[in-house]
TrEMBL record:
The organism's place on the tree of life at top rank: Eukaryota
Recorded catalytic activity of this chain's protein: GTP + H2O = GDP + phosphate + H(+)
Annotated signal peptide: none
Keywords of the record: GTP-binding, Hydrolase, Nucleotide-binding
Transmembrane segments: none
Alphabetized InterPro entries for the sequence: P-loop_NTPase, Ras-related_GTPase, Small_GTP-bd, Small_GTPase
Family: Belongs to the small GTPase superfamily. Ras family.
GO terms for MF: G protein activity; GTP binding
Family matches, as CDD domains: RERG_RasL11_like (cd04146)
EC number: 3.6.5.2
Protein name (Swiss-Prot/TrEMBL): small monomeric GTPase
The species this protein was found in: Champsocephalus esox (pike icefish)
SMART domains given in the database record: RAB, RAS, RHO
Length: 255
């Protein structure tokens, strides 16, 4: 990953290094280099300005940069070790969603729908300082459900910006209640101040996805290509015996 404002590799003399950086994602390894059957595709969803990009960047780089390119929709990839085994993790950042005027439906770009369809696990983010962002979570989850009507959906709910306690608009117990109604776990986190909390949240979801997390049905349907049929061994053996016996017959009749 290279940060805008930092000198580019091979151009170390160029000026840069001001306080705020914008992050440009560069895949850590080619997507094709994924660990077969050990891939977790995670999408991060939520309203504007809740810290989606900040959380991803914090998880991947342990850094809080403060100023992020808006609505990048970038895909990040990383290998992580879970329960002693390597897992290919892909994390999709998304543009923000917004409630419609009737507060029932969502404004959701097509790009986001594609990401929801693609993903195996969902990080739903709101800011504890913004009750409106909290109100988008339930309709957002319903939207994910419409795209994946069958099977459980591995999901975590993240109440971000927990460092801004004085500006809190959403109590922690509301977050917990909502998360359990969605069948997920609630994490209160601060991308700004705490790497461990963010790390724990992402790893938890990753584990849910890899273990099947109650969404084995979707994973089996979504992740695996149809396997080519294996050759029928019984049939092969029968034909082999047939060929052998006809050879034996023809050699004995030749005698
Ligand atoms: N205090 C505080 N600020 C945060 C935290 N996380 C993100 N921010 C700030 O919140 C603002 C929005 O962060 P982003 O990561 O760009 O949020 P986003 O949800 O990706 O925003 P969109 O691009 O609008 O979808 C930035 O100014 C961040 O510095 C946090 O944990 N605490």
């Amino acid at each position: 990953m290279r940060l805008i404002g930092e000198p580019a590799p091979g151009n170390m003399n160029s000026s840069g290094g001001s306080g705020n950086f914008l992050l440009v994602p560069i895949p850590e390894y080619p997507l094709l280099d994924c660990v077969p059957n050990r891939t977790a595709k995670i999408v991060v969803l939520g309203a504007s300005n809740v810290g989606k990009t900040a959380l991803i960047v914090r998880f991947l780089t342990k850094r809080f940069i403060g100023d992020y390119e808006a609505n990048t929709g970038a895909l990040y990839s990383r290998k992580v070790t879970l329960d002693g085994e390597e897992v290919s993790l892909q994390i999709q950042d998304t543009p923000c969603v917004a409630l419609q005027d009737d507060a029932e439906g969502l404004y959701c770009q097509e790009q986001i729908n594609r990401s929801i369809y693609w993903a195996d696990g969902y990080v739903l983010v709101f800011s504890i300082t913004d009750h409106n962002s909290y109100r988008t979570i339930q309709p957002l989850y319903q939207h994910v459900r419409r795209i994946h009507p069958s099977g459980n959906i591995p999901v975590i709910l993240v109440g971000n910006k927990s460092d801004l306690l004085r500006a809190r608009q959403v109590p922690a117990d509301e977050g917990e209640t909502l998360a359990s109604s969605l069948g997920g776990v609630y994490f209160e986190a601060s991308a700004r101040e705490n790497h461990e909390g963010v790390h724990a949240a992402f790893l938890h979801l990753c584990q849910e996805v890899i273990r099947g997390g109650g969404n084995g049905e979707k994973r089996r349907g979504g992740l695996h290509l149809a396997r080519p049929k294996s050759p029928n061994m019984q049939e092969l053996k029968r034909r082999f015996r047939q060929v052998l016996s006809s050879k034996v017959k023809s050699s004995s009749s030749a005698l």
